[in-house]
Design a protein that fits this description.
- The chain is an alpha+beta fold and about 70 residues long.
- The protein has one domain.
- The protein has one helix and two strands.
- A two-stranded antiparallel sheet has the order 1-2.
- A hairpin with a 6-residue loop joins β1 and β2.
- The longest helix is centred in the N-terminal third of the chain and has 17 residues.
Amino acid sequence: MLRNDVKKQISELVQELLQQVDDHEMPDSGEISFLLHIDGARSHSWANIRNMSEAHIPAPANLCKNMRLSNRSD
């Protein structure tokens, strides 16, 4: 759904935001691991975005669909 350069930009922005979170549950240093799932406008439109060092790891199969629209009957 999204171009790779856009996914990279989103990943970098999310990482920057997460680094600013002051919570005892967050890692003290280093890259924070995350997986962001985005549903698009159509049932076949979706994207999964990971932190940069884990971008090569496939997302779980149950996230490889549009979660919002995949169960609709239209």
